[in-house]
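just leaving the lab so this will be short. what follows is a protein written twice so to speak, once as letters and once as structure tokens for the fold. can you read through it and tell me how you think this chain folds. anything you notice is useful, everything is just below:
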Amino acid sequence: MIDCIIIEDQAPAQRILQRYIEDVGSLNLLETFSDPLRALSFLNTRPVDLIFLDIHLPKLSGIEFLKSISNPPKVILTTAFTDYALESYDLDVVDYLLKPFSFQRFVKAVSKLPLNDPKVQDANESGAKATKSLFLKSGHEYIKIDIDQISHINSDADYTDIYYADKKLISSESLKYWEDSLSDHEFIRVHKSYIVNLKMVEKISRNEIHLLTNYRIPIGRTYKKILDESYLKGK
């Protein structure tokens, strides 16, 4: 198990990290801190393998906190701001998570931990299994969904509609975000406004995709060749 702590002063962000850590079975959360000074006291008494560290903290910034530790454990920074990305890499952090981040992005960060550590190998294997699900931010909620149960995703102005099982969930993330997030799964962009799950394709007829869920999705001209190659390859 990889022993970790969270240093984050916002309760909603704490809950998301706690949920993500719980879903990666080989991460063991020891404590969650809102105050970085209390976290420093804890580290003086208990070694940890990994810190999830927010940058904007009361009393002491995450960057200042990190600079104050001699021989720090591995650190994954979390923040809503891009300003510190370059400085964070100078401090040799494992990764830099820009809020709001998906469960897939969280697992990707954890997978960057050194592979020669047996604890990390276990966590990476656990994380790979866990990526079959994700947490979707819909309104003020985070909903856990099975990736394989998503049939397609449709861009709708400033939002995206996620067609999941027999529901339609609304996400504030862009279609490009979902295209990137699901790139390791059998999802493909077939139109400027649509992504489909290839596992849900019943047939392709001319310029339409017929899904097992009875939806018909248009195929954009620029995407047709890529779709045909991807679909036929899987047959």
User: Anything to note?
Assistant: The longest helix spans residues 11-23. Residues 148-233 form a domain with the OB fold (Dihydrolipoamide Acetyltransferase, E2P) fold (CATH 2.40.50.1020). The radius of gyration is 20 Å.
